Amino acid sequence: MDILVSGLGLVESPRWHDGRIWFSDWTHGRILAVDDRDRVEVVVEHTSLPLCFDFLPDGRLVLVSNQAHALLVREPDGTLATYADLAGLSSYGHNDIVVDGRGRAYVNSCDFDFAAGPPSGRQAPGFVALVLPDGSSLVVADDLAFPNGMAVTADGRTLVVADSYRGELVGFAIAEDGSLSGRRVWADLGAANPDGICLDAEGAAWYADVPHQRCVRVTEGGRVLRTVELDRGAFACAVHGDQLYVVAAHWPGPAALATFADWDGQLLRVGLG
User: φ and ψ at 254, to 5 degrees?
Assistant: First the structure.
């Protein structure tokens, strides 16, 4: 296991793009990219908690900005512009994002005050919204206790959502218009708390688990194939070739999220060969 970058804050959203691994440092309001020589570039500076992002088919970066209540897109000159207004979807803001091969973005929200904890009741408030390339948006899935990392299968037909509070990866069929149906438990993870996820070339899922300080590879159905143990919380992961990239940090719990300073966030690389 190699430590590529250290001394960061709360880190998230690793994405392999254009020959580099990109990830966000929420605490310091930055999106960084690291090349194969471990050179680090600050690509975006923007204050938002969270600060999740993905890439459109044309290569532009699109990020969740709860400061602006919108998706913002990074233009070729490096400026940020409004891509879609999200203000009407949730007063509590949004969390993760994934973009499919047609340029449709899926954005989720727990839709409650994270620091205060989830509301009671059988119906959970969390949801997934579809944002179309024209900027329009609508909710396409609900009753998620805490929707977190998301991934689209290679064939573009399934969206997998990590529900951290229910310990599940939830699968939805993606229709031609981007709507979701056929909800199912893609993998029951028991007592695990899946955060960021990715799918590998064999169709297995890797999920990061903050309280259990590990990343785990599972099949659809939940059979465990491999576990990578860490010394701090694993927030998200990405696979490129035979390398697993993990962003990890110390976790103080939701109540201390806004004031905690001792994250010691890291970008890690684990060989899978």
Answer: -60, -30
Burial 15-53 (b: 16+ CB within 10 A, else e): bbeeebbbbbbbbbbbbbbbeeeeeeeebbebebebbbb
Number of domains, the chain: 1
Q: Label each residue of the chain as H, E or C.
A: CEEEEEEECCEEEEEEECCEEEEEECCCCEEEEECCCCCEEEEEECCCCCCCEEECCCCCEEEEECCCCEEEEECCCCCEEEEEECCCCCCCCCCCEEECCCCCEEEEECCCCCCCCCCCCCCCCEEEEEECCCCCEEEEEEEECCEEEEEECCCCCEEEEEECCCCEEEEEEECCCCCEEEEEEEEECCCCCEEEEEECCCCCEEEEECCCCEEEEECCCCCEEEEEECCCEEEEEEEECCEEEEEEECCCCHHHCCCCCCCCEEEEEEECC
Angle among Cα 230, 17, 187 to the nearest 5 degrees reads 50
Which structure tokens are listed for 93?
């803001």
Tokens, residue 154: 């290679």
Express each pLDDT in 59-95 by its tens digit.
999 999 999 999 999 999 999 999 999 999 999 999 9
State the residue range of the domain holding 81: 2-271
Q: pLDDT per residue over 151-193, tens digit each?
A: 999 999 999 999 999 999 999 999 999 999 999 999 999 999 9
Residue type, 136: S
Q: Which CATH number goes with the domain that contains 17?
A: 2.120.10.30
Tally of CB atoms within 10 A around 80: 18
